[in-house]
Amino acid sequence: xxxxxxxxxxxxxxxxxxxxxxxxxxxxxxxxxxxxxxxxxxxxxxxxxxxxxxxxxxxxxxxxxxxxxxxxxxxxxxxxxxxxxxxxxxxxxxxxxxxxxxxxxxxxxxxxxxxxxxxxxxxxxxxxxxxxxxxxxxxxxxxxxxxxxxxxxxxxxxxxxxxxxxxxxxxxxxxxxxxxxxxxxxxxxxxxxxxxxxxxxxxxxxxxxxx
Length: 211
Description:
By secondary structure, this protein is α+β, with helices and mostly antiparallel strands. It has 4 helices and 11 strands. It comes from Almyronema epifaneia S1.
């Protein structure tokens, strides 16, 4: 299937025209997930993205199957800039893990459609969380041709077989933990740690810019 650049751009745009988030709470969760997942998988061949359009199959004409998970992890694909994730250009590797952070504008029908899409196109772990109501559910399997098994809050604490991260629910909502037990941080906390480390190096007589 050979398509000209113009045809390809028309069928597979790099944006769906929708905002990344509807509110600051949803945005903070998306950025938290992407930032921590990138840190978790640093040094591995893995691609982590937020709100990036994923095209699972190549077609000749619309409709074009596509979704833009709030966060997605693709193990086995390198981390580099992409306008969208066209699976046929990526060794046909589907995202193994996806996350959806709900906003008040999301409908139950929309979430069911996303679940069906992710199930059809090979996602192994999918998670849905409403940071306003604290509702959480997930669906997992160990292979694309297997049935999906539900994961609910009653199963917490629960650890992802693929990523090794732990989900736990508290009075103030969901918390996600790295395999070493460290809680997922907000991006600002990474910056604070970075600044403290540089300050300590300066106290010891080292110039961080020389390292």
